[in-house]
Amino acid sequence: AKLVANILSAAGVDRLMTCDLHAGQIQGFFDFPVDHLDGAAIFIPYLRNIQSDNLIIASPDVGGVKRAREFAKHLKAEFVVCDKHRVRANEIASMQLIGNVEGADVVLIDDLIDTGGTITRAAQVIMEKGAKSVRAVCTHPILSGNAYENIENSVLTEMLVTDTIPLRKETSKIKVITVADLFAKAIRKIQDNESVSSLFL
User: Of residues 2, 73, 76, 84, which has the active-site annotation?
Assistant: First the structure.
């Protein structure tokens, strides 16, 4: 990340705009202003329209608890956590659910999805624990390997993603919400010398 920051700086970049960095600390590598936009501003309005009297937000792993808690706060919902144990990269040995999801409509929150292994395993565990439905939300759909097949064959009702990374193919379960409007508003505010903080929830 530091090398990329140095290359951008050497190329003359004097300001950077991003959305949902995998690690927020990356901002510290840059010697110029970084506007780190929050993808929650895109997803929250959509999730508020879900017809459910028992909506629960879930994190697919312990590392995503902070993100899931933020979504839960804005949606006035409870949240649960899936605790996974990996034997090696992209291979999960076991996963336990911390919290009660019986009869609930659950939304899994993640910043990126690679092979889809964690998110689909978490969805399966949640359904086995009595949830009524489970969706997934992801800002950056890397979707490598068998990810599309994993998602299509999973118990997920739908998966919401943004267009920060173009999809390689269409699938009935993946719905794309654009980040264009969020970035356009941020660029306009910067151009007008206004704070972008109003774009955060």
Answer: 84
